[in-house]
Structure formats: C-alpha cells, structure tokens
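Closing statement on the flavin-adenine dinucleotide sub-project.
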Amino acid sequence: MDQQTIRKVVIAGGGTAGWMAAAALARQLGPLLDITLVESEDIGTVGVGESTIPTARTFNALLGIDEPEFMRATQATFKLGILFENWGEVGDRYIHSFGQVGKSTWMGGFHHFWMQAKAQGFGGELGDYCFELKAAEQNKFFTGEESPLNYAYHLDAGLYGRFLRGMAERDGVRRVEGKIASVRQRSTDGYVEALVMESGDVVEGDLFVDCTGFRGLLIEQTLKAGFEDWGQWLPTNSALAVQTRSTEPAVPYTRAIAHKAGWRWKIPLQHRVGNGLVYSNAHMSDDEAKDLLMGEIEGETLIEPRLIRYRTGRRRKTWDKNVVALGLASGFVEPLESTSIHLIMIGVTRLMQLFPFAGVSQAVVDRYNRQADDELEKIRDFIILHYKATERTDSPFWDQVREMDIPDSLAQRIELFRQSAQVYQAPGELFQVDSWLQVLLGQRVTPQAYHQMGRLMPPQQLKQALDDLKRNIAGAVTRLPQHQAFLDGYCAPPVSRSA
Ligand SMILES: Cc1cc2nc3c(=O)[nH]c(=O)nc-3n(C[C@H](O)[C@H](O)[C@H](O)COP(=O)(O)OP(=O)(O)OC[C@H]3O[C@@H](n4cnc5c(N)ncnc54)[C@H](O)[C@@H]3O)c2cc1C
C-alpha cells in the first residue's frame, strides 16, 4: 500500500462533474482536504445534461441545498418522468414515470392483479394506478410536506455549474483558470504528481479527479486506462443541441421522441427549452439531422445547433492509481434515461465513502471500480431495452437495433417477463421494478402468463379494489395545481418566463 497521506485533491475540469465533485467534497470533507479545481473557459463544457432523476434530490439534501433557491438559480422545472413517443411503433406513447404502480404484495407485483383484471374485461390502463404518471399526463405538480410525488428536475446545465461553483468556492475550493498543458507523473510508479498549466504554473496534488469530459486527459490520455466500447448495442454517436424560447407552459416531464435514426429530446426550463437530436451518423448525415431538428422544434432558436460526437462505453478502470474519473471522462451511455448526472453523484458519494486518507490501496480501488462497473452495466441494459424491444420496421436503424444481439443479462430479463410477467430490481441497481415494468410494457413486450394471485379474490372484489385505487389517484391529481402555476409561486425568477 502507498502510505502517502492524501490531503491535496486536484479536480481537473469544471463542467457539471467537476463542480459537483468540488461542492460535495468541500461540503462533506472540507476540513480534512485542500481542494483545487482547474478549468479552462476557452475549452468550455459540453453544455448539455439538463434532465435528472430523483436521486438529484438526495444529492441536494446531502449538500444542504435549499430547493426554491436552487430552482431559481438553475431556472429549473420539476420532472415526473419521461414521455416516450414512437418507440415501440410509430404513433405509440407511454410515460416512464418515477412513481409506483398500484400496490404490490409480498407475493408479487401489482401488475399481476391488473393482468388478471384485464383478462376478465376490466382494469383500464396500468398508468391509471400511478399517481406520478397521471399527474404528468395532466401537467399537474405539487411538492410539500404532505405530497407523496416522487420527482426530479430539469435544469440549465450552465447555471447549475455556476451555482455549484458558488457553493464550492464559499466552502474553500480554490479555482485555477487556464489550460492544462501536460500531466506530470512520478517516475517510480506512474502516479500523477501535478498538472502543468500552459502558463507554466504547476498544480500539485495527492489525488486527482479527472472531470475533463470525453477527452479523459488524466485517466485515458495519461494513464491509458482503456475503453470498452458499447456501440454495438447503443449505436447512436452524435447529438445536435439547440435552445429555444418557451412557447407554452412548462410540462413536468422530458419528451423523448424517436425518429428514424435515433430520438429527439425536449426539456422545458423556466426561461427556455432545451432541444436535441440524438442519432447514429452511420444512419443519418449531420445535415439531415440538422434539418430534422430545426424542422421539428418550436419557438425562436437562441443559439446555433451544436454538434456533439460521443462514444458509448466505459473506461476499463474509472479509478486508476491516484486518478478517479467522474462524468464523461469515466464513460458515457446515451442520455435517454437521464442517468449521467446520477452517475456523477454516485461516483463522488462512493469516493467520499472510500476516501483513501492513508494512501491509495488497490483493494479500495478494486472495490470502487467493481461497484461502478456493476451500476453502469445495469443502466446500459435498461437503455438497450428501449431499442431492442421495438416493432418498428421503418428504417435500417430500427431494423438493426431490433435484430441485434443483446447482453445475456438483458435477454434473460426480457424472456423472464415475456414468459411470466416477472420483473425484478437486482441488488445495487438504479432502476426499480416499476421502471422496468413501465418500459417493458411501453415497448410492447407482452407477457404470455402472469401470477394467478388475482384469482384468489372474487372478480367483483378485485374490480372494487382496482376502482377504489384508480378513483383515489384521479381525485388526488384533480386537487394538484398546474405545474406552471406551482412553479410561478414556488421559485420563479423576478423576470417574465419569455424573457
Ligand atoms: C448529447 C448529450 C445529452 C446529455 N443529456 C443528459 C441529461 O439529460 N441528463 C444527464 O444526467 N446527463 C446528460 N448528459 C451527460 C452530461 O452532459 C454530463 O454527464 C455532464 O455534463 C458532465 O460533463 P463533464 O463535466 O464530465 O464534462 P464537460 O462538461 O465536458 O467538462 C469538462 C471540463 O474539463 C475542462 N477541461 C478539459 N480539458 C482541459 C484542459 N486541457 N485544461 C483545462 N481544463 C480542461 C473543460 O474546460 C470543462 O470545464 C448528456 C450528454 C450528452 C453528450
């Protein structure tokens, strides 16, 4: 074991990953560390990453962030899920909400009762039994002590970075502006010793957090950690991002609209809308993608569309020697389920839990990497599901993903559901049973059989129970305010929405 005491932490990169790491480390371990963040305004950030999942609230709570203040500062709106359009087939729509569907028992999920009801000619839509889903459909939202809605945020990525930077600097993080020209390694073992800036300044450290984005300046360009490519399962590799003025009240969900070679996102913020087209450039040219995006967005554009090229996969080691990679430097699965910011949060949380105060030990590094690998693989499978389980036959892209071989782990899950309607959340897995269920059904995976526990109830009793549940949810949704009206009262900035 390397017995060097670790006190000086250097974060390379000041995008969302860098400032999340800086803010969390400073807030939680500040008195034990000396933290410096190096970033270059000339290089800038990736400038996207505006849709989150509910764990963002856990992170905010960890940092003691006041929600209305955070929402004002980042022009955030609330998010109850994602509306998927045209995925299983052109014209299909389903919401993957953050809510629970119905009431499950120890023996099995609620959906088995629902399937029994459907077989008997009643039961309605599965979504009728999910509070978040019904609220999203009707653009309703409320948060407060007595509100059980599970939610996340849409936020302005640039403003989020600025907000976190303010917090981190107040907590003592030192910021160094400028380009890193080279990385100095210890001759004995290759550990990183310092970042050498273009100005000639040298930033020394004991532990380095690589948040330099796709380039992975330390983890890849210096340590050559290696990259495992997942392009065979997730073939999109390009995105065009553009911002527009809002033309309508903000809805409490992200839209993910499939097109012939990928999908388009629409993320409503308080002051504008984030739009983007994700595509495979083997199936659609950049010009075609730009025409498609510009033809479909609504409202005046605020910036020129920006092209982002990416590679889907992960670093073979996200922690190597004394370098821990976070954010895009650690790998990337496309943004369909808004998981990247969550992975930064989990990564920095795990780093704090395993922090190597007495020096980097291989056992700790291995533990960190194993957990990171496991989490990302399960997220990868969940995202592949959206492509594989489709009945679209209208383009070479959809033919390719429909026919592709998929990881065994996912193939087994799909088969399990198809044969028995059984769904599960594996240990340490982000996506819960209700997420798998909503997406499997939304993508037209139809179970051939289900658990028969619903037959233990007389049909009339089952119908009564389902009707009561449905009525309670519908009533609760009716009492919620409109999302935009709630936002206006809760956290609107002192300027008009269209400004
Ligand atoms: C198209 C697309 C859509 C996405 N949508 C979502 C989403 O909806 N939800 C979600 O959770 N995630 C999303 N993501 C992921 C999300 O954008 C990133 O996880 C997040 O922004 C973190 O990026 P980063 O900080 O790792 O990298 P970057 O933002 O690229 O930051 C890199 C930093 O390193 C600095 N740097 C690099 N090289 C040097 C150098 N030589 N010297 C000094 N500084 C340097 C840069 O200046 C910058 O500050 C999306 C990603 C893409 C590509």
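Residues 92 and 336 are 17 Å apart (CA to CA). With this model delivered, the sub-project is considered complete and its resources will be redirected to Aim 3.
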